[in-house]
Structures are given as C-alpha cells and as structure tokens.
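ok here's the first one, seq then struct tokens
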Amino acid sequence: MSKVDIGIDLGTANTIIYQKSKGVILDEPSVVAVNAEGKVISVGKGAKEMLGRTPSGVKAINPIR
C-alpha cells in the first residue's frame, strides 16, 4: 500500500485538492445543485452555472459559509 499526501481546502468560493506529487488536482466552485427531495443534481462548475437560473424544484446553493 502506497501513501499519498493530499491537502483539501474547503473554501467558501472554491474547493481545492492538492496532491504532493502532482500539485492541484481539483479546483472547483463550492456550489451544489439539489432537487426538492435533496438529491444532488450537479456540483462545481456545472452547479455554479445554474445559480440564478435553476428550473422549478431545483436549488443551486453555496453549502459552505
């Protein structure tokens, strides 16, 4: 089993994941879109594009404040 060092920054604007050997491996907006039942529809860039433009029954939110 190999060891992998990572760092996770759960920021209010972006979530960033850094891997020591590779650098930044994920940099996505901290946004999630959910439907009325709470099911996740989209996360990151896709959800950010939905902010202010969601269909009825879907909410795009920033879960980290």
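and now the second one, same deal
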Amino acid sequence: MAELTYEGLPKIVPLRAAQGFGVAHQDIDPRGLPVLGDDGAEGGRVVDLWVDRSEMLFRYLELDLGAAGGA
C-alpha cells in the first residue's frame, strides 16, 4: 500500500500527476536532459520528476533507458 499524505493522497507521485507542483523558474528543468555515465556515455534521458507532496521536494528522476540507443 502506498504511503499517503494527511489529505489521503499518494505521497510520492510523478510531476505529471502532481497538480500545483512544478520546477522553479530559476532552476533547470532536467526533463529531456541526458544522464551520463562515468565513461561519458549516455545511459538514458530524464522523462519526469517524482515529487514528495508532504515534503514539497523532488525525490526521484524517472529515466527512459531506451533513449540511450541500444543499451
């Protein structure tokens, strides 16, 4: 069972499902950016951020590993 907020909503959800949340205008939105390994090779791309509604911060990056081109 998912952990819930005081209001009874799932606590950690993707940003696409978290109405009223977003990336601050002064910060870089990582969605669409590549994720690089220590060797410099692209391992995937960020597709979404997962927000902790109770703490009002991002907990996880959701990656598309298929975007790495054959990994």
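notes on #2: Strands lie at 12-14, 34-36, 42-52, 57-64. The mean pLDDT is 92.
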